Amino acid sequence: MISIFDLAALLLTLSALFGWFNHRFLRMPHTIGLLVMGLLASLALVGLDVAFPAQHLYQDLTKVLGQVDFTDVVMNGMLAFLLFAGAMSLDLRALRDRAWAVATLALVGTLISTAIVGGAFWFVADALGQPIPLAWALVFGALISPTDPVAVLATLKNVRVPEALEVEMQGEALFNDGIGIVLFTVLVAFAAGSGGEATSAGGVARLLLQEAGGGLVLGLVTGYVAYRAMRAIDDFPVEVLITLALVAGTYALAQKLHFSGPLAVVAAGLLVGDRAPRDAMSEETQGYVSSLWTLIDEVLNSVLFLLIGLEVLVLRFEAGGLVLAACAVPIVLVARLAAVSTPLLAFRWGGNLSARNVPFLTWAGVRGGISVALALSVPESDAKPAILAATYAVVLFTIVVQGSTLGMVARRTLKDLPERDAA
Predict the structure, then answer these.
(1) What is the distance between the alpha carbons of residues 301 and 68, in angstroms, rounded to a whole number?
(2) Alpha-carbon gap, residue 362 to 384, rounded angstroms
(3) Radius of gyration of the chain from Cα atoms?
(4) Which whole-number Å values give the CA distances from 216 to 74, 105, 146, 171, in the listed order?
(5) Per-residue pLDDT tens digits for 69-126
(6) What is the pLDDT of residue 69?
């Protein structure tokens, strides 16, 4: 049994080593390079274990990684800080201008995608002779449909898109995970046969109001308190500490109150990021706060994407489920296309969505660590191995293939697009 410090040291050392190697030789986007190198290292260890079974390299590293609770690390650790860093950098005024488009994509798009992915996954599994109950197929739809805010924000750092479209994508990614987690919670309860009142229409509405509404209100309250506290002083060490305490305290309190922690820290980050630089922070404090959260974002992103690549050592896939996992990739892409296109057709009178952006928005639907974490948290059942394999296949494809080619897609589909028509 190794200590938490030893685990942190191992992950940081591997992140630094792989990051240096990628920057020096591979030249891939940083986070994608770390994921690919982590995955290749995992596959190499598996191959070495087959070739030299007496060395036990694969087993030893698997034992070490087995001590990392991926779901807990992501959902109750990294996610709060990564979401706050992303929300701090988002232009709230621009987000207000795109509020209708963001809300439509985050809510309607997630619901449409969940239904399409769930139904298609259930149908294909049955056709392949690997039947999965429809309820569990819908659970997969709920956990894979929301675009991952961490992965999307990391990908957008390497792609130039019109500002309005970038705000739309960032806003959708920051808010739709809250919708997806509520859907996931309800559908898991239903599939496991323990839903009760929670799976009724009234129960779902109450859960959505409590989780999403409560999280947003809590984040606005704690964010405003932090903003007033920072405005009352001019001392950068204390103000930096306030932002750290705001994230940890808000997320922890949201969990205790059964509110959405992700939405709470997003709301707090948007408020502080908008108000504090104007009249609560000096230029010196702004520099330190910005540097701190940029550093936190980069370091945690590096470790998270490395963990996704290494997680293949711990996950247990069944050979028969690999074909179904491969089929999940086009299913999710088609569902993303429908999720982006349907709101455009239904609400075209709103004037906030452009048909010319549909190909780009479809390809930009990147999934990441949150989907893997939710899949790992699925209760043990006959359907879990298939859900895990399909989730991992989709996450790898969206990050590695879609993420690395998104710039090319942007240049081809958004070429000469006027900025006023950009979203």
Answers:
(1) 16
(2) 27
(3) 21
(4) 20, 18, 18, 14
(5) 899 999 988 999 999 999 998 888 888 888 888 888 888 899 999 999 999 999 999 9
(6) 86
Residues 21-52 have pLDDT tens digits of 999 998 898 999 999 999 998 888 877 767 77
Contact yes or no for 328/394 (Cβ under 8 A): yes
Q: Which residue in 364, 251, 388 sits closest to 316, CA to CA?
A: 388
Separation of alpha carbons 307 and 143, rounded Å:
19
**CA-CA-CA-CA torsion sign (223, 228, 232, 234):** positive
CA angle 270, 347, 206 (to 5 degrees): 55
φ/ψ bin of 416: left (φ > 0), alpha (ψ from -120 to 50), beta (otherwise): left
Q: How far apart are CA 417 and CA 17, in angstroms?
A: 40
pLDDT surpassing 80 at residue 348: no
Q: What is the DSSP letter of 378?
A: S
Whether the CB-CB separation of 81 and 315 falls below 8 Å is answered with: no
Instruction: State phi, psi for 352 to the nearest 5 degrees.
Output: -105, 0
Residues 406, 363: contact at Cβ < 8 Å?
yes
Cβ-contact 141, 159 below 8 angstroms: no
- The answer to whether the beta carbons of residues 168 and 423 sit under 8 Å apart is yes
DSSP string, 394-414: HHHIIIIIIHHHHHHHHHHHS
Tell me the C-alpha distance between 233 and 238, whole Å.
9
Question: How many other CB atoms are there within 10 angstroms of residue 84's CB atom?
Answer: 31
Q: How far apart are the first and last CA of the chain?
A: 52
- Convert 189-209 to b/e letters by CB count within 10 Å (16 or more is b): bbbeeebeeebeeeebeebbe
- Residue whose C-alpha is closest to residue 184's, from 147, 244, 143: 143
Query: Residue 58 carries which side chain, given as an amino acid letter?
Result: Y
Look-up: residue for tokens 């502080």?
272
Name the nearest CA neighbour of 273 among 181, 361, 180, 170.
Answer: 170
Average pLDDT over residues 382-403: 93
